Amino acid sequence: MQWLTFGLLLIYSVQFAFAKTIGLNDLWNSCQTNSTQLHILRETIKQAENQVLTSKSYLYPEIVVSGLMQQNGNLPQIQLGNRTMQFQPDQTYRGSIQTNYSLYNGRRTKYSIQSQLLQSDLTQNQYHFTENQLAYDVSKAYWSWVFAFSAEKIAVKKVELARQYFFLVDSMFQMGLASKLDLSQAKLNYEQQQVSLDNARMNKKMAAMAIESLTKYKIFDEDVPKNELYDTTFVVKPDTILEKALSQRLEIKSQKLRIRLSEIQIHIHQANLFPQLTLFGNYSIANGVDPFDAMKFRDQWTVGLQMVYPLFQGFRTKWEMETSKHFQRQQQFQLEQIEDQIEKEVYLYFVKVSNSNKILSFQNAAVQHARDVWTTVLAKYESGQASSFEVQEALTQLATTELNQVQLFYDFQVALLDYYKLTGNMLTYLERFTQ
Hints:
By secondary structure, this protein is α+β, with helices and mostly antiparallel strands. The protein contains 10 helices and 8 strands. The protein has helices at 2-17, 24-34, 36-56, 108-174, 180-215, 238-248, 250-270, 316-382, 388-422, 426-431, and strands at 21-22, 62-71, 77-80, 83-86, 91-104, 224-225, 276-287, 297-308. A hairpin with a 2-residue loop joins strand 3 (77-80) and strand 4. The radius of gyration is 40 Å and the shape is elongated.
């Protein structure tokens, strides 16, 4: 069994000798390149920008050019003495140019452009909101993988300590210094630690699969994280976080844009109460117009001003404006609801971080104490002053406290992620890993 254990440890070491180092920045770059959500939103942004340009096209006159060539046959003719006349030529040619320009439409065009600009801003906000959410999900998945990687290292250490203890008990049993029960317990503990190692490796593999699902980045068993879990203790004030969250969260910015958009919609409906003035003109040239000379070309032009006024529409405009006003008040109430929800998130976050800070100093001391206890109890057992139960209890306590410490560091990383997500600055968080 001894040569098998050393063989497994050797394979484990060789794997990491050829490992690829993966940083959070690598995963985020892959996510930006491969995310279908971001690709869809980028196209939506381009679509919104084109809609803005479309709405601005109504600021310019509309010009239409048309032409016609027509072959005529079997035309009626009139005989006047020695002269034959026909009122249409064998070939008819016509050309015209028309223009229309809206002089006044109740400022409908102005508000339509503003509406499209706000829609474009909303689309940009949706893109950044999705980007922030993906940045949070990718970062959390990365730290979950790092935590699983650290847990695997602890499990490997537990297997090695259990192996050393098993061989110690086996040698003492051979010399008659340990009972058969002690040997059986040591062997059972060794096998249990191997099962725990298998579970830890499975958890690491599942964490890697979660990353691949988000970023399309393939992580292999031998790959190692570039960034490690560490103590991220920091002091935060609820008022400071709340101020940043209310000023930077994209949900609030988007909701304010929707309120402004509903206000502009009221103005668009209001434009129906005003007359529309349109300047139009036409110039045309054609043959076959002169009854005495069908082949002769003649031109003509017209210029005019048209006014259209909706005198009565069954109070349609009034009810459309009332509907838009109710929608605007609804958006304002939703803004208040979003602000209240953010305040609750800030409060819960502060409570969570405050409790975590209190645990850290205790946990660091607990790990050092567990290491000292393990060393002491193992030495006592070897000299016959401690039981096998005490040794196994010390081993379990050491592994548990070390895992709890890694869990605490992971919780701090998540708390830091929550802070940047809460304040709408996940991309700022990722900048820490691009240097």
